[in-house]
Amino acid sequence: MKKKLGARTALYPLPATLVGANVEGKPNFMTVAHVGVMDLGTVSLGMNKIHYTNQGIKENGTFSINIPTERLVKEVDYCGMVSGRKADKARLFETFYGQLETAPMIAECPLNLECRLVQTVDMPNHDIFIGEVVEVYCDEECMDGDAIEFLEVKPLLYAMGDPSHFTASSSYYSLGSRLAPAWEVGKELLK
Amino acid sequence: MKKKLGARTALYPLPATLVGANVEGKPNFMTVAHVGVMDLGTVSLGMNKIHYTNQGIKENGTFSINIPTERLVKEVDYCGMVSGRKADKARLFETFYGQLETAPMIAECPLNLECRLVQTVDMPNHDIFIGEVVEVYCDEECMDGDAIEFLEVKPLLYAMGDPSHFTASSSYYSLGSRLAPAWEVGKELLK
Q1: I need a surface site. Which of A48, A133, B31, B123 has the fewest CB within 10 A?
Q2: Is a pLDDT exceeding 90 seen at residue B42?
Q3: Residue A42's Cα: distance from chain center in Å?
Q4: How many CB pairs under 8 A join A and B?
Q5: What would the mean pLDDT of B175-181 be, rounded to a whole number?
Q6: pLDDT at A92
C-alpha cells in the first residue's frame, strides 16, 4: 500500500561530502549531501544561500568535493552544524591544494574532486553550483587498477528523514556489499 | 599516497533510479544514476541527449523518479541497456499515475517521486532536467512514522568504475547499516 508523503525530495541516500572553498583567503569546509552528477565531467552542489562557504565559491570560482570515510563521521557531522564564520573547521584536517590553487582539499578524505565553477543556478533560497571536475585525487589503497574501489573508500551515505524535523530523523549509513556488475546482470532480460 | 586520476566525476555511489516519462503517449522507464538534489523540493537528472526518454520529459514537462529495491537489480540494469525506441520496458512493471497525470510511476518500486519540470540546463551532450517534486509515494512497509526507512527500501547504489571502460568496471551496491544519527554525532566536537 502506497502512502502519500507530500512534496519533499526523498531522493536518498546521497554521499555526505565535505565541500572545500577558500573564504577570505582561508580554507573552509562544509558538509553537503545535496550533490549531483550532471554528466561525466560535471557535478552540482545545492547550498542554502545562508552559508559562509558560498561566498568563497563565488570569490574564487573554485571548490572541492571531498569524500570522507566512515571514521570521519563525527567531523563530517560537525562541519554541517557549525559555520565557518564562527569556527576554524580547517584545523581538523590536513589541507592540500591542486592545480586551481584556491580549492582546498582534505588529505584524510580518500577521494577528492577539484572543481572549477562553470555555472550557478539561482534558486529562491539556494545557490546551485555547477562545477567542472578538473582533477580527481584518490588514495592508492582505495584503487583497484584504474577503478576507484568504493568498498575501500567506505563513504558515508546520508538520508534525511522527515523534513519537518530532519535534525531528529536523519542518519549516516555505510555502503553495503557489491550486489551485481552493472551493464551485465540485466542481459538475461535481453533474451 | 594520493594518485591523480584526471578529470572524471567520481562522485559515487549514487542511487540507481528508474526515471519515468510518457513518450508519444506511452509509459517508458530508463535507468539514471546521475541524479542530484538541489534544495528540499527540487531534484536533477543528468541525461545524455541521445535518450528516448528525454523527448517524453520535454513533451509533457513531467517525469517520475522511482527508487527500486534490491530484488529489481536485473530490471534496473536492463532498463539502462535498452532504449524505449526498441523495447516496451513498461511491460516489466505495474504502472500508476498521480496528480500530474503524465508521469508514469512503478508500483514495484517502494519509493516514487512525481516531478514537474521547472528548468532545463542545456549542456553539450546532456539535458539537465530540474524538477519540482509535487508528491512522494512510499510503501507503508518502508515507513517509520513519517520518516522513510531506507534500510527497508533497500535501494541500489551505483558506482561507475573507470570511465574509459565503465561497462566493465561499474557495480550496484547495497545500502549498509546505520552508522550514526546526523545532527547529533558531531556535537562532541562542539565542546
Answers
A1: A48
A2: yes
A3: 13
A4: 367
A5: 97
A6: 98
Is 80 exceeded by the pLDDT of residue A167? no
Greatest CA separation for chain A: 60
For the question of whether the overall pTM of this predicted structure is more than 0.95, the answer is yes
Report yes or no: A46 and B39 within 8 Å, Cβ to Cβ.
Answer: yes
Grid cell of A38 as nine digits: 550532471
Distance from CA of B174 to the nearest CA of A (A): 5
pLDDT number for residue B112: 98
- Is the reported ipTM for this assembly greater than 0.90? yes
DSSP state of B82: S
Q: How confident is the model at residue A169 (pLDDT cuts 50, 70, 90)?
A: confident
- Distance of alpha carbon B36 from alpha carbon A25, whole angstroms: 29
On average, the pLDDT of chain B sits at: 96
Q: How far is A154 from chain B (nearest CA, A)?
A: 10
Q: Which residues of A touch B178 (CB under 8 A)?
A: 171-173
Confidence of residue A173 (pLDDT cuts 50, 70, 90): very high
Please give the full DSSP string across A40-84, using - where no structure is assigned: TTEEEEEEETT-HHHHHHHHHSEEEEEE-BGGGHHHHHHHHHS-T
Q: Report the amino acid identity of residue B60.
A: N
Burial (Cβ within 10 Å: 0-12, 13-18, ≥19) of residue A175: buried
Q: Helices then strands (H, E): number in chain B?
A: 3, 15
Question: Is the CB of A182 less than 8 angstroms away from the CB of B163?
Answer: no
Reduce the DSSP state of residue A31 to 3 states and report it: strand
